[in-house]
Each structure stands twice: as structure tokens, then as C-alpha cells.
Amino acid sequence: MGRKVLVLEDETNIRSFVVINLKRAGYETVEAGTGQEALDQLKRNPDVNVALLDVMLPDMDGFEVCRRIRSGNSRIGIIMLTARTQEMDKVTGLMTGADDYVTKPFSPAELTARIDALCRRATGETAVDTGEISQPPFLLNTRNRTLEKNGARVKLTQVEYAIVKLFMDNAGKAMSREEILDAVWGKDYFGEVKIVDVNIRRLRIKIEDDPTNPTYITTVWGYGYKWGF
Ligand code: CA
After folding, report:
1. What is the value of pTM for the model shown?
2. What is the Å distance from ligand 1's center to 158 Cα?
3. Which end of the chain has fewer beta carbons closer than 10 Å to its terminal beta carbon, N or C?
């Protein structure tokens, strides 16, 4: 089970606050105060499931730490801890290797909810790692987390991949938007159910023959969606 978190934060009071709350939530923690320390800690603890990376650090910025971690590890979940003063455009632009970000000040409940969601995704992946799910014209590779349509690769975000995987596991079944939100984002996700529609709209553009007349992801009026064909 994925329950080990690296906390990289140079401000010791914030770091202890985060660590105390993660321990209370049942996580094992590893701490670092500089980028270099974080990289060393990960070498010593290859079983870390999620890394929390502060952006403002004394030796290098958190995005650089993220890049270095990501270059050797595609499975670890990465959450950036950003300050409200950092422009969101810049943050999302730099976020290429990260899975999520949390803006300071954050509540312990919000942070653990985000970590839980990433852990569940990571461990769920290993639990059902059967290789491939073939539902022509689609082929989902659960090892590489890739999707092909008629043999051509469809580029998906991590969240879009999780939605397609969920649909394929529940082919033909009408799924409520809440059900999709719980399964993909986690039961404690603080966001709105609208995020489901936003992602479905994007997915349809990527996978439907005609996104305005979807046949793979159909709408179940007043309820949710169905992977139906
Ligand atoms: Ca800092």
C-alpha cells in the first residue's frame, strides 16, 4: 500500500505542521529542507509514493527538484506547494512533471485529500496491472498508461487516462458524475463535480469521431455518462 510521503519544505514550522498532520492521517513521512536533501532522501527511500515539493528553497527551486525526480521516476506522485503570490500561469507552465499543486496556506484536510487521491491512483494501477484492455477501436495499455485508437496513440493527461480506465472497467454501465468524481479524484476531493464535465468534454475531442455527436462516451441525461458501444 502506498503510504509514504516525502515532505520538502525549508521552513521548519510549516514542515513539522505538515508532517504531524500526515502522521495523524496514517502516512509515513520522510523530511527534507533543501532540494539536494530531497533527492538524497529519495535515493535512500525508493518506496516513497508521493513527494510534496515547496517551490521556494535555498538551493534550487522546487520545479527543478520536480524535473530531476521525474527524469528518473515516472510513478511517484508529485504535488507542488505554491505561494499565492506566484502567478498561476507561470506555475501551470512549469508544472509539466507535477501531478497537482496546493496553494499556501492550505488546510491539512485538503492536503491529505490530494495525497490520498494520488496514492489511490498509484496503488490501483499496480493492483490491476494486467497489461492491456482491448475494446476496439481502443486499446488501453495499463503498464505504460497509454491509449490507442485504431492503432494511433491518443495523448492523455493522467486524469483523462484514469477516466478512460474507469469507463473501460465499467463498459456499458451508466455512471453518475459523483461516481466518476469519487473514483478518479477521490472521495474527499474538495473540487466541484463540474470538473468531470470539463474533462469529459476534452476527452471527447480527443477520442470521438465527431465530438458534437459522441458515440463512445454518451450522456445519460440528468445522471452522468456511459461508455457505451
Ligand atoms: Ca520555502
Report:
1. 0.56
2. 27
3. N
